[in-house]
Amino acid sequence: MLIVAIKKTKRGIKRRNSPKAKTRLSPNGTRLAEAAACLAEIGKGFHARGWVLGTSGNFSAVISREPLRLAITSTGLDKGSLTPAQFLEMDEAANVVRGDGRPSAEALLHLAIAGRVDAGAVLHTHSVWSTVLSGSHASQGGIALEGYEMLKGLEGVRTHKHREWLPILENSQDMVELGERVSKTLRDSPGIHGFLLREHGLYTWGAGLQEAKRHVEILEFLMEVLVRSGAAQSA
Ligand SMILES: [Zn+2]
Question: Ligand 1 centre and the CA of 104: distance in Å?
């Protein structure tokens, strides 16, 4: 009797109670849709700030840890008009397991970070500030951020006296080789919140999407301060 009653109700109710419908709603499919909706909004916000102009930058979120599955931007997209449908689910070897298109060329870097620091989300921007600083400080191997109140926006930081080291890695188009250097940097510098690729951009991450987004905002703010204060001093 119950089945008949359900069938006579509206389509949505029937779907929720149907065993068939349950098999369609896989956990990863749901998580991909949720992550994609959040990442698309974050991406549009970053584009509005000028941090991911053109088709630059890419964003990912872990939707499964065992086995590792990431929601990630498809390649070559304008980040100012991202939609949830433009995100893919990929496995630990960057193979697409759900969605249309190809993952970003830098997918291997996202996988290296997600696997190494237990991040729930990885965000990558190409701002003017990171491009300038990663070039001007490349010979020092990184940038020390110290004395700024905004440092307290980084997870675990409690005081402006904290010294945040932002390593700079030489850029490369060989993502396998670069991914290995990223892994090594993360292993050798525990506790960092991000790194720069020389004259390329910023990578940062967080336990979840909102934490990763906050880290982009904090690090981009501090890099902008460094560039603008340097320009002010030399004026
Ligand atoms: Zn990039």
Answer: 9
